[in-house]
Amino acid sequence: MQQTELENKLLSLLTQPMRMDEMRRALPETGKNELKGALDRLIADGQVMKNKKNRFAVSTHYGCVAGTFLATERAFAFVAPDAPEDGPKPDDLFIPPGANGGAWHGDRVLVKMSERKNGRGRREGTVIRVLRRADREVTGALVQRGNAYFVQPASKKYPEVAIDRHHLGDAQPGDRVAVSISCYGDETLPPQGVVEADLGEDGTMEAAIAGILHENGVYDVFPDEVLQAADAIGQEIDPAALTGRLDLRDKLIFTIDGDDAKDFDDAVSLEPLENGHLLLGVHIADVSHYVTPGSPLDMEAFRRGTSVYYPGHVVPMLPFALSHGICSLNPNVDRLAFSALMEVDKDGRRYKARFAKSVIRSGARMTYNKVNKILAGDKALREEYGFLVETAERMNDLAHALYKRRIERGALELDIPEAQIIVDADGKPVDIQYRDRGESEKLIEEFMLAANEAVAEYMCKRDLPTVYRVHENPDPDKLRVFASFARPFGYRIDPSKPEDTFQFQTVLRGAKNDPKQRILPTLLLRSLARARYADECIGHYGLKAKFYLHFTSPIRRYPDLVAHRMLQKALSGEEFTTADHTMCEEAASQSSTREQAADECERGIDKLFIAAYMKRFIGEEFDAEVSGVQSFGIFVALANGCEGLIRVELLAGDFYQYDEQRMTMTGRRTGKRFTIGTPIRVKLLAASEVTGQIDFAPADGALPVADPTEDAPPPAFAPAPGNRAQRRRQGRGKGRGGRKGKKPPTRKRR
Question: In 3D, which of 443, 411, 246, 445 has the Cα closest to residue 340?
């Protein structure tokens, strides 16, 4: 909730209880109705409470706190309290069975805190009021019992929902459906709902995918008015649009993308200058020329926030008529662009930056694979693309220099392998591989980072509104956990100095060359804050960048589109208004929310594809490593990135005890211990392409040896194989969350 000046004054006053008349005396210039309105808003948001004596105070004075209700698939839950702006995030509160006050997962609630703690040391609480229901639809299987209809949610976090037969639509029992909640029920009545969408036959992978997308507000189909607006733009540039643009059509400019990429939203150029410096050009599709503020295209792009990718498919932010058509920097055709032209020296030091709306003509559609081979000396390709070989080599040298400067300033190189699911022409998974990042992938990343920083610096130094990509310093408590895990490997991390990123660079360098340490980069990533969008420039911790935003992917990210608009307004000398500031604030909030939804979709659907691929290997054995430990079992990861669960009851031959602080599972009699990184031979028991659940068991005799001397406490979280969501979490905008990697071919969903 965005606080007004009056609300902030009230929160400062009400650290001690006050009556209304006392508040009016303390704020004599505030009208009665204005004061009451501000007070009502704070009460509705759970920040202020009133006692039986009509005295108002901040909720914490009365032992209460507002936060987000986090249901589990068992009877208990947690509440994540609101984090203070100037302090660390408080621990979650444990909500025991029967104390949820009718709250559902995601609701904003007010909790009365107790002095009691549960068996694992978490403070308990009781939900006393639901402040605001989450805007949700629940998906699940439609079942019929007698004349009554119910939806059994796919997630056990939600209760069963009753459906009146008049609210079924065309859905039939056995279908998977999406339901909006019309009544949350009470002790006497069950929750009630209305079927909003039929997602297909329950128990199929297609319906499971549709359910994940729907739950996260991701829709394949564009509204008709949006498609009509896109089609009306056409596929030819209006000659009038070239007026006043920087004409770069005679320059050597080309794109570098994945082999199967369909849209190209960035191109690069590099030419020597007379003073011995280089002019680095990053040319981005001028989406803002076609998607104007307040238009149907703009409103739909704002709602979506980002494109969403899963194996063999993309749900785009903009219709294909734009993203694959007039906005795509296809070779040998004129295209409108927004160019960042940066003067740099051979050591990667930037001297000047110029930005201009331009017209370009890409000279080649290059791929990562081809450029990597050219740089490696492939004779045939060097002959075929002789006109750009020298430029490509010069680009590679500059990219190395930019990388070196970035590392020297303290940037973290969290180059975590990303699992890639390969699908066939029918969209079925046929392999799982780790992506290789060659010289050309790194080259493009460095150039995009350079452009993003240059634009951010230009806007920030002039105190102009835009949307920044920000990354706060990590929580020292989380770093302490990481430090304790890294200590046995010889690293001495000082969690009280998070700004000293060089100590983490040491860990990352060591982990590159030691297989035993390969879990450390993932654990470090999980210790860091999540990058987000904001309307103020507070820097980027992971990149060690004082200025940073996203400028280079307006086809697939809404914040980039806003950055283009604000930059053009600055260049043209237009006056910024209050509406511009408000729009940037709203776009930052919406884009952060939609990015998280995209991460949830991609992560959830990837699990389904991995399970579908692994199903063919049921009964086979694999080498694995423990990737996480919980009270109910241990997670194990295979070499291909597949992760699954060994339930604790399958750890035969001993009684295994779970240590939450040390994140270990230890045999009481034998002393055999499971902890993160423990190698184990496993047998695949089951894999479900409907739930994404993969179950393993230890292969015969495949239990760890006793190791009573091992005393390093692992981290309080379970790592998972690298994926796109992890790349997004780093916040730099690489991978499919930003600068694209190998992008999957698009296909219509059936």
Answer: 246
Report which residue type is found at 205.
M
DSSP 702-719: --PPB-TT--PPPPSS--
Three-state SS letters, 375-420: HHCCHHHHHHCHHHHHHHHHHHHHHHHHHHHHHHCCCCCCCCCCEE
Q: Residue 700 — very low, low, confident or very high, per pLDDT cuts 50/70/90?
A: confident
| 254: β partners | 268
State how far the Cα of 473 lies from the Cα of 544, in Å rounded to an integer: 10
Question: CA-based angle 506:512:515, to the nearest 5?
Answer: 120
Give the containing element (helix H, strand E) for 126: strand 123-132
- Please answer whether residues 454 and 342 qualify as being in contact, where contact means their C-beta atoms are separated by less than 8 angstroms: yes
d(C-alpha 306, C-alpha 291), whole Å: 15
Residue 281, pLDDT > 90, answer: yes
Buried b (16+ CB within 10 A) or exposed e, 225-240: ebbebbeebeeeeeee
193, 153 Cβ separation under 8 angstroms = no
Q: Where do the domains of the chain lie, and which CATH numbers do they carry?
A: 5-60 (1.10.10.10), 63-132 (2.40.50.140), 137-215 (2.40.50.700), 476-528 (no CATH), 611-728 (2.40.50.140)
Judging by beta carbons within 10 Å of its beta carbon (0-12, 13-18, 19+), is residue 80 exposed, middle or buried? middle
Which of 324, 306, 323 is closest to 601 using CA atoms? 306
Residue with tokens 């031979």: 681
* Contact criterion met (CB below 8 Å) for 511 and 520: yes
Task: Compute CA distances 406 → 341, 533, 738, whole Å.
Answer: 19, 22, 19
Tokens 């199967």 belong to 260
- The CA distances from residue 506 to 121, 503, 510, 514, in Å, are 34, 5, 6, 13
Output 732 or 562, whichever has higher pLDDT: 562
Q: Considering the entire predicted model, what is its pTM?
A: 0.85
Q: How far apart are CA 335 and CA 333, in angstroms?
A: 6
C-alpha separations of 527 from 474, 512, 534, 602, 638 in Å? 7, 19, 21, 21, 23
54-97 pLDDT tens trace: 899 999 999 999 999 999 888 899 998 987 765 567 888 999 99
Q: What tokens appear for 152 in the block?
A: 């059994």
Burial class (CB in 10 A: 0-12, 13-18, 19+), 171: buried
| Angstrom distance (rounded) from CA 185 to CA 383 | 72
Phi, psi of 493 (to 5 degrees): -95, 135
Residue type, 147: N
Pairwise CA distance, residues 520 & 526, whole Å: 10
Angle between helices 296-304 and 224-233 (to 10 degrees): 120
Task: Round to whole Å and give the CA distance between 712 and 675.
Answer: 10
Q: Backbone phi, then psi, for 537, in 5-degree steps?
A: -90, 105
Percent helix, strand and coil across the chain, each rounded to 5?
Answer: 35, 25, 40
| pLDDT tens-digit series, residues 337-347 | 999 999 999 99
Instruction: Give yes or no for a contact between 101 and 128, defined as CB atoms under 8 angstroms apart.
Output: yes
| Rounded Cα distance, 118 and 429, in Å | 43
